[in-house]
Amino acid sequence: MPGIDKLPIEETLEDSPQTRSLLGVFEEDTAATSSYFSQLFRAMQRIYDAQNELSAATHLTSRLLKDYEKQRFPLGGDDEVMSSTLQQFAKVIDELSSCHAVLSTQLADAMMFPITQFQERDLRGRRQQYHDTAINRYSRLSKRKENEKVKNEVMEDVYTSRKKQHETIMHYFASLNMLQYKKKMALLEPLLGYMQAQISFFKLGSENLTQQWEEFLTNIGTSVQNVRREMDSDAEATEQAIQDMKAASDPLYMPDPDPNQIPVNRNLTRKAGYLNTRYKTGLVSSAWDRQYFFTQGGNLMSQSRGDVAGGLVMDIDNCSVMAVDCDDRRFCFQITWIATINNISKRIYLSENPEEIAARVNQSALEAHLKDYADVIYETMRQILAARAIHNIFRMTESHLLVTCECLKLVDPQTQVTRLRFPLSSVVLCASHRENKRLFGFVLTTAGGREDGRPVTVCYVFESNNDGEKICDSVGLAKQIALHSEMVRLISNDSI
C-alpha cells in the first residue's frame, strides 16, 4: 500500500490559512469518498437484497414442489413417478435454499456490516467552533472602562473555548487521518467478505481455481490486517501527540498569557497571527474585519479567509507604529507610512495653490502638465497611491477594460453598462509601473477643448488583475490596426 497523507496536528493551534486550505483538501476528499461509498453501498445493498430474494424464492420453490402431491389435477393427478421425482428435487432445492440462507447471512456479516459501519460511523465527523465568538467578545472589551469581573469572565471564556477548539480540531484532524486508513479497509473488507462468501457457497470443484482465489484472497486479507495494525499504531502515536501538545499549549490558550511562562524565541524571523482591521463604511461609520497577517521580509502581508494567497499591505521598513485609544477594541495601534506623509506634505505645502492640490489628492486621474508623458504616468501613480494611503482609501471599483480599434471602454461587470469611453485617437501613451506590473496608466487628450491655448491632457491610473505591460501592448496593437485601416481608407479614396 502507498503512504498515507496526514494532516499536521501540531499546526492546529496556529490555525493558519495554509492549514485551513490543507484541511479543505481533506474535507473535499472525505466528501468524494462519501459520494463514492454511497454508490458502492447501494450496489452492494442490491446484491444483498437479490440474494435474500433468491433464498426466499428457492425456499418457496422447494415448498411448492413438496406440495405437488397434495394437488388435485383433473388429468394425470395420480402420477406417482412424477411425485417421487419432484420430492427428490424438493429435497435438493431445500438444501440449496439452506445454502442460500447461509450465503445471505455471510453477506450481511462480511459485506454489508463493514461498509454500513463505515457509512454511518466514520463519515459523520463534524467540527464545532466556539473560539471566534469568544475572541470577538474579548476584543470588544473597553480598555477605558475596565471591569475586572467582566474581564476575568471573558478571559476564562476565551481560555475554555480556545482549549476546547484546539482539542476538538486535533481530534478532528486525527479522525480525518484515520479515515485515510479506514476507507481502504472499508473498500477491501466488503469485497473480501463477498468473494469469500461466494467461494464458500459455490465450493468450486476445480482445485487450481480454488487455490488461485484463496491465495489472492489470503493476500488481500493479509494486506487488510497490515493496514489495521498500522492504523492502530498510528492511532496510539497520534493520541500521545495530542496529549503532549495539549500540555505544551495550555499557556497559549489565554488571550493575555504571562510572558514569564512563554520562552523567548531569539531566532524568530517571521511573525504571524490574526488582527482586526478597521475600515470605513460611511462618512462617520466604520467596521472591523478579522484577517490573518504575517511578515515576509520587510513587508506586511494579509490574507483573508478563503483566499489562496496573501497580499501586500505595506512596506514596514519605512513605517512608524503608535498605540491609539479605541472605544470598541482593545490594544489598538496604527501604522503610518512615513514616505506617504513626506510626499503628500511636500506636494501640498510647496505648491502655489495647496488647496487645489489637497482637494484632489483622492482622485484617480490627474491633469498632466509635463511633456514627458512617461514621467507623468509614474508621478500620477505615486501621488494617487500616496493620497489613498494617507486618506485610508482601500476600496476600489471593479470595471472591465475593453480595448477596440476605435476606443477604450470601462464596462460595469454586473450591468454591462459603459462607465467611461475614451477614443483611441486621444490616447497619447500607455505605460505600466516599473516595479508593480499590475499598475498601469495612460495619458489622453481631453475632447472638452483647450485651456490657455494648449490642449488639456489627463492621466488615468488603474490596477489590473493582469500584467499591465500586456494591456499596454494591446492598446498599442489596437492603435497600429486603426492606423493601418485609416491608411488603407485614404489610399482607396486617392485611387477613386
Automatic annotation (TrEMBL):
<dbReference type="InterPro" id="IPR047237">
    <property type="entry name" value="PTB_APPL"/>
</dbReference>
<protein>
    <submittedName>
        <fullName>Adaptor protein, phosphotyrosine interaction, PH domain and leucine zipper containing 1</fullName>
    </submittedName>
</protein>
<keyword id="KW-0968">Cytoplasmic vesicle</keyword>
<dbReference type="InterPro" id="IPR027267">
    <property type="entry name" value="AH/BAR_dom_sf"/>
</dbReference>
<keyword id="KW-0966">Cell projection</keyword>
<dbReference type="Pfam" id="PF16746">
    <property type="entry name" value="BAR_3"/>
</dbReference>
<keyword id="KW-0472">Membrane</keyword>
<dbReference type="InterPro" id="IPR011993">
    <property type="entry name" value="PH-like_dom_sf"/>
</dbReference>
<dbReference type="GO" id="GO:0010008">
    <property type="term" value="C:endosome membrane"/>
</dbReference>
<keyword id="KW-0539">Nucleus</keyword>
<keyword id="KW-0967">Endosome</keyword>
<dbReference type="GO" id="GO:0023052">
    <property type="term" value="P:signaling"/>
</dbReference>
<dbReference type="Pfam" id="PF00640">
    <property type="entry name" value="PID"/>
</dbReference>
<dbReference type="InterPro" id="IPR004148">
    <property type="entry name" value="BAR_dom"/>
</dbReference>
<dbReference type="InterPro" id="IPR047181">
    <property type="entry name" value="DP13A/B"/>
</dbReference>
<dbReference type="InterPro" id="IPR047236">
    <property type="entry name" value="PH_DP13A/B"/>
</dbReference>
<feature type="domain" description="PID">
    <location>
        <begin position="377"/>
        <end position="483"/>
    </location>
</feature>
<dbReference type="GO" id="GO:0005634">
    <property type="term" value="C:nucleus"/>
</dbReference>
<dbReference type="GO" id="GO:0042995">
    <property type="term" value="C:cell projection"/>
</dbReference>
<dbReference type="InterPro" id="IPR006020">
    <property type="entry name" value="PTB/PI_dom"/>
</dbReference>
<keyword id="KW-0131">Cell cycle</keyword>
<keyword id="KW-0963">Cytoplasm</keyword>
